[in-house]
Amino acid sequence: MANDPAPMSAGFHPLVVIPVFDHEHAIATMVEGVLATGTPCLLVDDGSGEACARELDRLAALHAPRVRLLRLPVNQGKGGAVLAGFRDAGIHGHSHVLQIDADGQHDPADIPRFLADAQAHPDDVVCGVPLYDASVPKGRLYGRYLTHVWVWINTLSFGIRDSMCGFRVYPLPPVLRLIDEETIGRRMDFDVEVLVRLFWRNIAVRNLPTRVTYPLDGVSHFDVWRDNVRISRMHTRLFFGMLRRLPRLLVRRARVAAA
Fold first, then answer.
1. Are the C-beta atoms of residues 41 and 18 closer than 8 Å to each other?
2. Which of 125, 126, 115 is nearest to 12 (CA)?
3. Which CATH superfamily is domain 14-258 in?
4. Which residues contact 46 (CB under 8 A, 6 or more apart)?
5. Which of 15, 21, 71, 192 has its CA 20 to 30 A from that of 167?
6. Domain spans of the chain, in order of start
7. pTM of the model
8. Over the stretch 84-139, which tens digit does the pLDDT of each residue have?
């Protein structure tokens, strides 16, 4: 069956991390979907309101020890919540983190497929490539293409097919090194920036299609003005970072072309 848990090798210890901010209506369905795959789960409460906090407490108590709860005292943004999840996963001895959003956009039944690919390629990032249905807002869909173009420029590669999908598996050791050594955007700029900076560190990206719908509970925390400004600044930072790395990226591109 599609949601049967994948057999895990001795050195492969994945953890599903779900950043949560006021998604009290969708999070129980997501947790149930994750647990159906047999994978442990960490809920990161990113300063949610009282209703969501109560629901997270309920889920953590109901499903302990398979579900743990990490509570951040103030909202740090999606990236800040995932970064906190990375560090918690490292403390608890996990080798990989599967990041999935709380709002029901992503299909948890795809988790075994993503983890199987990560287990077969444990040094790589496995990144979702969205397959949208009719629920996707056209403005969001078209806006993604501009980010795709900037990512292709900043990596000199088409290797990252979609840098904004929040459904992906990270190998934890290189991610922890990265976040110890560099500053990563902590809000909606996080997904793009962490992927580009890992690519710059020679972490390969594997692209897997996954179904995406918008969203189960009708709640989106994307602020059109502030987050687009934040993302634009992030692309500018990455562009100048790419210029500093240009010789090395050109050599890498030539090697790929020759392979």
1. yes
2. 115
3. Spore Coat Polysaccharide Biosynthesis Protein SpsA; Chain A (3.90.550.10)
4. 19, 20, 21, 72, 75, 76, 77, 78, 80, 81
5. 71
6. 14-258
7. 0.86
8. 999 999 999 999 999 999 988 899 999 999 999 999 999 999 999 999 876 666 56
